[in-house]
Design the sequence.
């Protein structure tokens, strides 16, 4: 990983830790997006006393261990000439009842005016969010760390647009892309498998783990496509039902792997009950299961067009999650708009055209007529280029 490149969240974390002690800072995001690197960069630059510990390195990380880290921090602060100390605890979700201990220790410091600022880092958003809702209401702020954007990957590692579209944005895998077979195996073994095993299966009550794995692989392969749960069940080996699939897809979404976009509608009931459009959070999650090479995929205009649409989706999905926008798709009969981004009462329709029929915009015309959006955009041929669009933020669309 390029440890000299500083992502946008660096400035936010730095500014929060320079403020007077008020809230616990929670950093979470999917695995291998650079959360630990980010906080390490901040700690190196902030010129304050700090303690960094990771529950991942402790065989017996427990509530007792967590309390001991806090006591160590208090002793270090007391013996220091500095007036405050930053305590960072990585992989916090691995400690049983962590939120209760954090609440107790934080409140003790608050009552006794002990100036220990706290940063908690979690790879399992599922467990972190559960702990936050149980014990720490009103005591924390969340800083979401998304998957890397094209602009970031290009600046930090020099990847071309086409390389980003196919290989995605996992920094740890960049050095392997010249050996595609090795790269695909690494993504499966070191990125996908730990995320599913440690962040989903071990943290939730999963009665059919084989079904969840099949759903993830199928959803990745069909990323960018609208597919009903009933049709999905017909392609899965393990028995299940549509409710189970919807629940599993939600868990994969919280883990930052795969989501099901809902149909855009003014009717919330129609939106909630709509057929999902699968969308991965990182293009690497699709390419890892691709049987063809990067060169072969690029030479197939229709397949490459699909990869370009997936890349646009990953770009918007990560930005929307971090900044509170809604991302949907629109479909009515045979009329479709690839993505609809909503902020407050404004919506932007986005149609991606590459390698397919680039002249048929009937879906956009119907969407315009029906919803009177703030604006509509064509990305790709005869519109804004992919590189230009992937260099924008969702806020720029408004």
Sequence:
């Amino acid at each position: 990983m390029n440890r000299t490149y500083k992502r946008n969240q660096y400035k936010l974390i730095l500014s929060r830790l320079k403020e007077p002690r008020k809230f616990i800072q929670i950093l979470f995001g999917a695995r291998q997006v650079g959360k630990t690197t980010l906080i390490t960069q901040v700690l190196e630059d902030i010129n304050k006393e700090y303690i960094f510990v990771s529950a991942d390195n402790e065989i017996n990380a427990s509530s007792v261990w967590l309390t001991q880290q806090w006591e160590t921090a208090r002793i270090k602060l007391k013996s220091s000439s500095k007036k405050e100390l930053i305590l960072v605890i990585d992989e916090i979700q691995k400690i049983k009842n962590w939120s209760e201990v954090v609440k107790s220790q934080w409140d003790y410091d608050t009552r006794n005016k002990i100036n220990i600022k706290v940063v908690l880092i979690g790879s399992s958003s599922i467990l972190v969010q559960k702990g936050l809702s149980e014990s720490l209401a009103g005591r924390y702020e969340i800083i979401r760390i998304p998957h890397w954007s094209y602009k970031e990957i290009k600046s930090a590692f020099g990847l071309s647009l086409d390389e980003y579209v196919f290989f995605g944005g996992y920094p740890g895998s960049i050095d392997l892309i010249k050996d595609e077979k090795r790269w695909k195996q690494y993504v499966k073994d070191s990125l996908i498998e730990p995320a599913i095993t440690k962040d989903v299966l071990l943290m939730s009550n999963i009665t059919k783990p084989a079904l969840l794995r099949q759903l993830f692989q199928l959803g990745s392969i069909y990323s960018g496509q609208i597919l009903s749960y009933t049709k999905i069940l017909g392609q899965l080996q393990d028995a299940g039902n549509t409710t189970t699939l919807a629940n599993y897809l939600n868990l994969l979404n919280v883990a930052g792997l795969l989501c099901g976009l809902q149909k855009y509608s003014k009717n919330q009931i129609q939106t909630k009950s709509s057929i999902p459009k699968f969308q991965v959070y990182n293009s690497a999650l699709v390419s890892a299961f691709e049987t063809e090479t990067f060169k072969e995929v690029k030479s197939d205009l229709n397949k490459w067009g699909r990869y370009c649409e997936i890349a646009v989706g990953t770009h918007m999905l990560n930005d929307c999650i971090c900044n509170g926008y809604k991302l949907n798709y629109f479909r009515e009969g045979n009329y479709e708009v690839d993505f609809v981004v909503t902020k407050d009462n404004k919506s932007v329709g986005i149609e991606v055209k590459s390698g397919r029929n680039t002249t048929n915009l009937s879906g956009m015309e119907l969407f315009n007529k029906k919803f009177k959006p703030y604006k509509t955009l064509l990305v790709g041929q005869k519109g804004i280029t992919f590189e230009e669009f992937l260099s924008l933020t969702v806020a720029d669309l408004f």
User: Anything to note?
Assistant: The radius of gyration is 22 Å. The chain is about 45% helix and 15% strand. The chain has a mean pLDDT of 90. Residues 268 and 331 are 15 Å apart (CA to CA).
